Amino acid sequence: MIADYGWLLTPWALGILGLCIGSFLNVVIHRIPLMLERQWTSDAAAQLTESDDVQKASGLAKADADKVANAANMLVKQLDQQAPLSLSKPRSRCPHCGHQLAWHENIPLLGWLRLGGKCAHCKASISKRYPLIELTTGLMFAALSWRFGAQPTTLLWCGFAATLLALAAIDWDTTLLPDSLNQPLLWAGLLAAHLGWTVPMHVSLAGAMLGYLSLWSVYWLFKLATGKEGMGYGDFKLLAALGAWLGWKMILPIVLGASVIGAIVGIAMKMSSSLREGRYVPFGPFLAGGGFVVLFAGSERVLGWLGWV
Predict the structure, then answer these.
(1) H or E stretch covering 129
(2) Global model pTM greater than 0.90
(3) Could you give the CA distance from residue 108 to residue 124 in angstroms, rounded to a whole number?
């Protein structure tokens, strides 16, 4: 049966699938942070709608607590009137003029090229990152087909790579590593190992534990020493997910590679005065980069590079 449909898992077929998945990843990368911000604002406002609770928690005078509660109620009503926001609604549109994209404008890569990188309605520039994400995903899927062959488990690794790419892009933009992506990636890695599709289960479980606890320990040592937070909890969860998929032996190579590359990029950005406010560089994209290196090079080759075989 696999042989009959093996052509669907060839580099060309998966490359085309990757272009389509990349188009969806653009939506994920753009909208998930917005959805989180809206949800957080809504939750915070809902906590402030009762003046008695505000007064009890804050110690404000009754009149001031009433003002806060009234403002929170207005905010809740305003949020309720907002158009639904999800990965499927509203349909893709130009961020400048609101022009809703036609189906042919949404064709991965070709749509952007056909439009010359500009909105068909207002002629505003469309970011080059949209076709870049699509092309990157397509090339990754094709490379994974070449790396693992035309077998069903290749689709697992494609899903792993796509999620990793989305997490890296979101973290670079916002310094967020959403649980809505991080946690399914972790549990999918453990499930795949349990079913015998990736690394042995005990290797996967050890990888998840070591991945989380290693960065958790670094976080607390740094905080106790400096009083500052050097990274977020999302980084712990991402490294745990990488360990679940790639095994515990890959944790140290991933962290070492991510640290070196992150330091180089950070220094380059500092010298070019391109560091964002707060003078920080998110660590998640470099952890993801280390995961990609292990995925495409293979664990044995990575260990060989380090002389640990």
Answers:
(1) helix 129-148
(2) yes
(3) 19
